[in-house]
Design brief:
Blueprint lengths: L1 E5 L7 H7 L3 H5 L5 E8 L2 E12 L2 E9 L8 H13 L5 E7 L5 H6 L3 E6 L2 H5 L5 E2 L2 E2 L3 E7 L1
Parallel strand pairs: 4-5
Antiparallel strand pairs: 1-2, 2-3, 3-4, 5-9, 6-9, 7-8
């Protein structure tokens, strides 16, 4: 497997980005200001991680996703570890915002992130339709962070 940074048109990876964020409108708010890294297996894109500089030494994961056939094999963790190595020394904190879901929270905690803060009603105010994940409606954005 190989991880590379996308230097050109990031929209060609929209199918991967939509695995992590179902709203193309929301993706448009960060796709151009971030750096997109793609995980490939024998030339096929199987995962992505898009990060943005939030200022003050904070790097934020805006999107991380792996195609279903490769999930639960360490690919998401591989992408996050790549980001940590790539930006160590340049940033001191890596953060990620996600829904309070039984599917995503354990993943980030397993990767060493700890709860940081909450943005109340983020999903209900910023998405046109309710979002459910693991049987739970996403309402608040829960932020996790870790030192890098």
């Amino acid at each position: 497997m190989d991880i590379y940074e996308v230097g050109g048109d990031r929209r060609q990876y929209m199918d991967l980005l939509l695995l992590a964020d179902e709203s193309p409108r929301m993706i448009e708010t960060y796709i151009e200001r971030g750096k997109l890294f793609v995980l490939s297996d024998m030339g096929r894109a199987i995962g992505e991680c898009l990060v943005t500089d939030e200022g003050g030494g904070v790097l934020e994961i805006k999107s991380v996703a792996v195609v279903p056939a490769y999930q639960k094999h360490g690919c998401g963790r591989m992408l996050i570890e790549h980001i940590e190595r790539e930006f160590a020394g340049e940033y001191h904190t890596l953060q990620v915002g996600t829904g309070d879901s039984p599917l995503t929270v354990p993943f980030y905690e397993h990767c060493g992130f700890v709860r940081s803060h909450v943005v109340k009603d983020f999903f209900t105010q910023n998405y046109d339709a309710p979002i459910y994940e693991g049987g739970v409606q996403l309402v608040d954005m829960v932020y996790f962070s870790k030192q890098i």
